Amino acid sequence: MSRPDANASAALDRQIIRPVFFVYLDVLGDPLRACTAGRSLLVNGTGDADLDGFVFDGLDATIVDIGPVRAKDGGSDAVSAKLSGLLTLDNELLNLIGGAANWQSRTARLWRMIRDEDGIQRGAIQHYYTGYMTALSIEGDPAVGQTINLIIEGYLAAYSQASGRTYMDQALYDPADLSAKAAIAIANGNSGSPLTSNTAITFSSGSAMSAAAIRQLL
Hints:
Strand order of the largest sheet: 3-4-2-1-9-10-11-8-5
Structural class: alpha+beta
Radius of gyration: 28 Å
Helix content: 10-25%
Strand content: 25-35%
Number of strands: 13
Oligomer: single chain
Largest sheet: 9 strands, mixed
Order of helices and strands: HEEEEEEEEHEEEHHHEEH
Distance between the termini: 49 Å
């Protein structure tokens, strides 16, 4: 998140502020641009190619909830964006959400504009968060209103999940590396090649592998 400029910072000290969030979601084939101004806005003069020259569809700010940006080790924490109070969801939207290839791991960007109690813009539009869409779900009951919940994660968080791989996967990357198989053979008291002719032995046996032979396998 970038720092607000001097005018926006001064406005943040006011008793009442009315922030407007802008969102760009790189949905496959139909990118979405919206804002919480309550009316559609054409943005110009920011110097940001994802903002300038585009109309952001207006949404009622009371049904939109943008989570805070929190810093942590390895980058900022995930940010949530919620759109609530939805009584009906059409098939097009349901298909979009259900088809993860339409949105998953694609770019999401958020900006914030500070307005005072009279709705006057104070300072420049501020970059709020950029990341990748990693989870999109529908929650709630259609009878009382549903919520679309989007999770946006930064690059490090989205692409540094635990792989689940172990040392035993080494042969996947280096087929000539037989160290994992040799380790298992040694642990099981077997001799010979880790691929062929493994023979059960005791370490007091005359056929037990020498340390030099083991090192040749590793």
